[in-house]
Amino acid sequence: FGVEILQETSNQLGWSWFETGEVLQVVLPLGISFYTFQSMSYCIDVYRGEARAIRSVWDFACFVAMFPQLVAGPILRFHDVSMQLQQRVHSVERMTRGICCFSLGLAKKVLIADGLSLPVDFVFAADAPSMSAAWLGAVAWAFQIYFDFSGYSDMAMGLGWMLGFD
């Protein structure tokens, strides 16, 4: 929306930044809202005195771009992980627990949630499903959503444990 207004304004002023009808394509990084919310979480926690400001740009970047939860969440509070960023613990037990949790999450996502998508799509694509089919589709859809998010959460926790976080 804003890009189109900028384009129209520049064309009306006679500036040749854009050709008429050509829209500037802005490429935003994947998960830009999560970067924003993570940064806001840091600022709010420091402002409220719930966490001390960090002096290392590297530690801040690690917090903002913590990939296990970047795309699927949850949004982390900085004061919950600030000490762990500096004092992560790596062990065979944590790695094993992380691999098991990640594998369980992957199974929930791929085998259960994705497996439920076929009957759900079939019921929702029907022109006039019966009452029982509609209810079955709704219940299957609820389980699909549950196992989808549960699987992603388990995978994020597993990756966190593998990387030394609690």
Walkthrough of the structure:
By secondary structure, this protein is mostly helical. It has two domains: 85 residues, no CATH class; 71 residues. It is 66% helix and 0% strand. The chain has six helices and no strands. α5 runs antiparallel to α6. The chain starts with a helix and ends with a helix.
Mean pLDDT: 83
- How would you spell out the order of helices and strands? HHHHHH
Low-confidence stretches: none
Total beta strands: 0
End-to-end separation in angstroms reads 42 Å
Helical content (DSSP H or I, runs of 4+): 55-70%
Radius of gyration: 23 Å
Blueprint (SSEs and pairs):
Elements: H1 2-12, H2 32-47, H3 57-64, H4 78-86, H5 92-125, H6 131-162
Helix pairs in contact: 5-6
